[in-house]
Amino acid sequence: MALTKSVVQIQDWTAVAQNGVSESATYDNSANYASALNVQAFLDSTTAHLGSEFLVQASANSTGDEDWQDLVRFLALTGTALNITITNNPAPVGTTVFTSGTVAAGWEVNELSSRIVGVKDINVLADSELMLQTGYVLNTSITVQDGSTNAHAINSVIYSIAMTQNIVLPTWVNRVRVFVNNNYDNGGASLNYKVRASIVTSL
Fold first, then answer.
1. How far apart are CA 134 and CA 110, in angstroms?
2. Is the dihedral angle over the CA atoms 126, 178, 116, 9 positive or is it negative?
3. 26-80: per-residue pLDDT in tens?
4. CA distance 99 to 69
5. Which of 106, 99, 126, 98 lies closest to 40, judged by CA?
6. Domain 4-79+162-202: top CATH class
7. Among the residues of the chain, which ranges form H helices?
């Protein structure tokens, strides 16, 4: 018998200001046999950043706020992001080469097998996405491994510091939520984040 698997959007791309704290929507995990959270985020400014704190809280209770427990806490998005402004007009769904006249040194992937980058859509934040960068041409373009899921208008911006983190939920978890503490560095950068759940609902 095949497993029934699906993906649930808990929190679509959400902006978190410098010094801001954001709480995701609470997800009801009670009916699932197995679940994992996927947290994605990227910096959207070029200010030096000491990192942002991500806290996943879980509750075995089906209601109420008395018994939230810290499940996972981690620091991410450390560094000073580079950015480029897309000159594709537009960049359609499936784009793998994003052109820009400002692809400075630092976008090389020579010493890394790849780099996760964040594409911030200029028109609709929910159309932003993370992509795997695999190539670069100075002052010309960057290349990504897979074609873009969404179209991106000219002047959308790509940032060089992004992350994705998977957290497997224990079977006792009935509810879960994610906090993003962007006050960890009170002089740092703003960011965007997104939370999904990958679930198994029947065996």
1. 9
2. negative
3. 999 999 999 999 999 999 999 999 999 999 999 999 999 889 999 999 999 999 9
4. 45
5. 126
6. mainly beta
7. none
